[in-house]
Write a structure and sequence with these properties.
Distance between the termini: 41 Å
CATH topology of the domain at 99-461: Methylamine Dehydrogenase, Chain H
Structural class: mainly beta
Helix content: under 10%
Shape: globular
Strand content: 35-45%
């Protein structure tokens, strides 16, 4: 808990850093930006996935407000650190997988997980591997992929594009947040800097010095000659949207503490240090501009020279990936995507001074049976065998290899004729030979990670236990709680019969979308894939009949009438209904959505004639909302009745017990503008957003048994309100910060399950009847002049006798002491505020509440940490070391909460650096100054402290010496 607290605390401090590097064209309003993408790009499913996730969140602008996103996340993390989101374990989420999806077609793909781009193998142990997952955190295996452990759930970033291991000390790991690919990158928000672990992934430190906190990593490389020298390749892949200000090759000479950009290019994809010559470093850049291509540094990465002799024109190099052979380092391979539809391989035998094409006439993309395609903008990678310069593997849609260093051939299973016969899941992103055993090779792809132990002759899945599926939708069997179906990005539809205890089983390919069980005959299930390809199975997905596409939204509405199992509804711009169990459909309301395709629709289970839809399918900024009272034949436009700024509408929901009550859910970044409710079929609407964070919201659920209890699924997880939306609390116990996309509710075997599908960490469930009756909505500890003030608030109480306050002192970690009791309020639905003062106490302290019911049962709260000081005066210490070069530390003590400014001055009295400028709580602090860019000499540091209680200000200065 202490490590987690410190980790979150460090993450918080970084959020207050000025967001110098923001997303490109942030909040720029250019209607043409999305139109600038070429049609051949926009037609690809990989683009449509990105567009669906990103564009709805950006409306009415072209780019997401990253500043708002991280500001809101800061607030939520702060609540967690201070106990502000403690609900006395109010809801406990349990993962129900998939920890892997067992592929049925093609069967040889085995268990699949989510997309992986970051991949690093231990230098001496080929079974120890780290992977960075898109929206799925950092995972580690020590047994070659038999089992995996999540080692990054509590970090601020979800997506990782590169991971590197220090060969000199393999316990040191670097993880670069954010992925890069040409044309589009924003799938699950930008990355947030670099993370470093010195204990093999157990804990992490957040680093943003130099390149800022909005990042997309293409590669990371620790010099094999000097562990202090690290290189990072940063890009964006934004292309038509614009590029970041921090792209290029960055260099650190102090093991990642500080960074300097040494190569100013856009879309830096790869960086490699020569294995035997520390002065030689190679890099590649894309973007289709004059600076694209191959680079060489002859001075250890400080300066660079472009070396494109023999390569195509730089303006055509949209993306370039490189690899060299360790045993023959003058042999370098390059794989280039130029948008022509045919990726090209190049080879240099003189250390990159000149190049020749070696793949003339050879397709290096993929063929699913209808011709070769190239997805080099999305998936492109190359790796040379470290012991054999002629053996090279290349990845695009499919896996390719050369055994003579000249001609590539597609690598398929025996007798294979198409991309379905690729030995791993298609769409390859990184290939890594184990440094200590070249026969062991790992592939990172859209289906997770695959492994070969015989130098690429055969491959097998290594995904068991990685819960990183990016769900779109999920549904539960109406009476068997352990039977579920779901749909996910690039992994089709799948099912489980044991509530995710083992891997789920594949049923379809593509992108799995809306799905549901026949409530009368639950052996019949309905499935769909992207844009409304509709299917039905009468044997729980063993065989499926497909009925074609309705050309709907990316996620097309598809659901069953609540009482008539033969009536199935779907939509495009029109509303369609089947009266024969989905075999054929009839349009019952033609072109009723004139603003856009219908992307969400619902039907009242109380009065099925009452229906509602919203049309946001093609990302209009003015979606229509319409209501029907005759079963979908006629619709009334209620759009103008809904308050707030119009945004993309992610979901419309009907109340479970009131036929006239409906809700809409909005995406995007517009404060106080997330959930709206009507109780009169859309005539008037009230705002139920309350204090929800200003982030995109994705789904909404009303508890069937407690209809004042609302649940909101948003990009931070799940929030719950017990007072009809006035106040909300994040239900985060057991669930990381991850986009929650879809709710599913089932009452089975006497238990009420609420399930939530996430876009990156698979699915979770909780028992709604296992809620602790006392709802603690905040619990904080604050040190003040030798005392600790404890404050907590409850939203509801049932049979609450009261709270015992327990304290733990650092150094006595296993001993908790009861220091007081505060009576409760019995049973009440009113908000109650409590306080307790722990007097004359000092040290590093931990507190928890023991809530006791009238029957003697009890529950513990989350733990809050605080440092209380016995020194009741302000103190500024001498910097250490002094003299110093170039880093020094400055410590100071605050006995009470104060506004603090810590400033560095030169001898002329000019401000050199403002190290601290914020309000800080009572505790001891340490500020670090890196004076690497300053000349030797005398400097002064001054602290100015203004207590928030208005007492006397404290000011002190000290001298220090920088000696280079």
């Amino acid at each position: 808990m202490k490590n987690l607290f410190l980790l979150l605390k460090s993450a918080l401090s970084l959020i207050f850093i000025s967001l110098f590097f923001l997303s490109p064209l942030n909040y720029a309003q250019f209607a043409s930006v999305w139109d600038q993408y070429p049609e051949e790009v926009k037609e690809k499913n990989s683009f449509k996935r990105f567009e669906w996730f990103y564009r709805q969140r950006a409306i009415p602008y072209d780019t997401i407000s990253i500043h708002t996103f991280y500001s809101e996340k800061n607030k939520e993390i702060q609540k967690y650190v201070e106990g502000g989101n403690s609900l006395l374990n109010n809801l406990q989420w349990n993962s129900i997988g998939p920890s892997g999806i067992i592929s049925g077609f093609p069967a040889h793909w085995g268990e699949m997980s989510g997309r992986i781009r970051g991949l690093a193998v231990h230098p001496t142990d080929p079974n120890t591997v780290y992977v960075g997952v898109a929206a799925g955190s950092i995972w580690k295996t020590t047994n070659g992929g038999i089992t995996w452990a999540n080692v990054g759930d509590n970090l601020a970033s979800l997506t990782y594009g590169a991971i590197a291991i220090d060969h000199g000390n393999p316990n040191i790991i670097y993880a670069g947040a954010g992925e890069i690919r040409y044309n589009f990158t924003f799938n699950i928000y930008d990355g947030r800097g670099l993370y470093k672990s010195t204990d093999a992934g157990t804990t992490w430190n957040h680093i943003t010095s130099g390149f800022g906190i909005v990042t997309h990593f293409g590669d990371l490389e620790v010099s094999p000659h000097n562990s202090n020298i690290i290189f990072a390749a940063l890009g964006s892949g934004y292309s038509y949207i614009g590029n970041l200000g921090n792209e290029g090759i960055w260099r650190s000479s102090d093991a990642g503490i500080t960074w300097t950009r040494t190569l100013f290019v856009i879309d830096a994809f790869d960086v490699i240090v020569h294995p035997t010559n520390s002065t030689l470093v190679y890099a590649s850049a894309g973007g289709g501009v004059s600076s694209s291509g191959f680079y060489i540094s002859f001075d250890g990465g400080i300066t660079w020279s472009q070396s494109n002799t023999g390569l195509p024109s730089a303006n055509t190099i949209l993306r370039m990936q490189i690899s060299l052979c360790n045993s023959s380092p003058s042999t370098i391979y390059g794989l280039i995507y130029d948008g022509s539809g045919t990726p090209k391989a190049y080879k240099s035998t003189n250390g990159g001074f000149s190049w020749s094409q070696i793949s003339a006439g050879t397709q290096l993309g993929g063929n699913f049976g209808s011709g070769w395609v190239d997805q080099g903008s999305y998936d492109l990678c190359i790796a040379a065998d470290p012991t054999n310069a002629n053996f090279v593997l290349a990845g695009n849609v499919e896996l390719h290899q050369t055994t003579n260093g000249l001609t590539f051939s597609v690598k398929r299973i025996s007798g294979g004729t198409s991309a379905w016969d690729c030995p791993s899941h298609v769409d390859l992103h990184r290939i890594v030979f184990a440094p200590s055993n070249h026969n062991v090779i790992y592939i990172a792809c859209d289906g997770g990670i695959y492994k070969s132990t015989n130098n690429g002759t055969s491959w097998a899945s290594a995904n068991k236990g990685i819960t990183t599926i990016q769900f779109y939708r999920m549904a539960s069997h109406p009476s068997k709680h352990d039977t579920l179906i779901g749909g996910a990005q690039d992994n089709g539809n799948f099912r489980t019969f044991n509530a995710g205890a083992t891997a789920w089983n594949y049923t379809t390919t593509g992108d799995g979308m809306e799905c549901f069980f026949d409530h009368t005959n639950p052996n019949t299930i309905y499935l769909s894939t992207q844009n409304g390809w509709l299917g039905k199975s009468t044997n729980l997905g063993t065989t499926i009949t497909w009925y074609g596409s309705v050309n709907g939204s990316w996620i097309t509405p598809y659901f069953m009438h609540p009482t008539n199992n033969q009536w199935i509804y779907t939509a495009n711009n029109s509303v369609l209904r089947s009266t024969n169990g989905g075999t054929t459909y009839t349009t019952i309301a033609s072109n009723v959505s004139t603003s856009d395709k219908i992307n969400t629709m619902d039907q009242s289970s109380v009065t099925p004639n009452n229906m509602i839809f919203a049309g946001s399918g093609s990302f209009t900024s003015s979606p229509q909302v319409k209501v029907s009272t005759d079963g979908g034949f006629n619709w009334t436009d209620v759009t103008s009745n809904i308050p707030g700024t119009q945004m993309y509408i992610t979901r419309v929901v009907c109340h479970p017990t009131n036929a006239n009550t409906m809700y809409i859910v909005r995406s995007g970044f517009s404060a106080g503008n997330k959930i709206y409710m009507t109780t009169n079929l859309g005539s008037t609407w009230t705002n139920a957003t309350g204090d929800l964070p200003n982030i995109p919201h994705n789904d909404f659920f009303v508890d069937h048994a407690n209809t004042t209890h609302y649940y909101a699924a948003n990009d931070f997880g799940v929030y719950r309100s017990t007072n009809s939306g006035t106040n909300w609390v994040r239900e985060g116990l057991g669930m990381p910060f991850v986009p929650a996309i879809d709710f599913d509710y089932v009452f089975a075997n006497g238990t009420r399950y609420l399930r939530v599908a996430t876009h990156g960490r698979s699915a979770f469930e909780t028992d709604l009847d296992n809620i602790v009756p006392v709802e603690l909505t905040s619990f904080t500890a604050k040190a003040s002049k030798g005392n600790v003030d404890l404050n907590w608030t409850t939203a509801t109480e049932l049979n609450n006798q009261g709270f015992e306050i327990e304290r733990q002192i650092a150094g006595l970690e296993n001993k908790w002491k009861n220091i007081g009791f505060v009576p409760g309020h019995g049973t009440t639905s009113e908000i109650q505020h409590y306080s307790f003062v722990d007097e004359n106490i000092s040290g590093f302290l931990r507190y928890r509440l023991k809530q006791i019911d009238l029957d003697g049962t009890f529950t513990y709260s989350e733990i809050v940490d605080v440092e209380a000081l016995d020194n009741l005066s302000f103190k500024l210490d001498q910097n250490y070391p002094n003299p110093f070069n170039p880093i020094t530390k400055i410590s100071y003590i605050l006995p009470e909460e104060s506004g603090v400014t810590l400033t560095i001055y030169n001898t002329l009295g000019e401000v050199t650096k403002v190290l601290v400028n914020e309000v800080q709580s009572a505790k001891s602090y340490e500020a670090v100054w890196n004076a690497g860019a300053q000349p030797s000499g005398v400097y002064y540091y001054t602290i100015e402290v203004s207590p928030i209680d208005g007492s006397s200000m404290f000011r002190e200065s000290k001298k220090m010496i920088l000696l280079k």
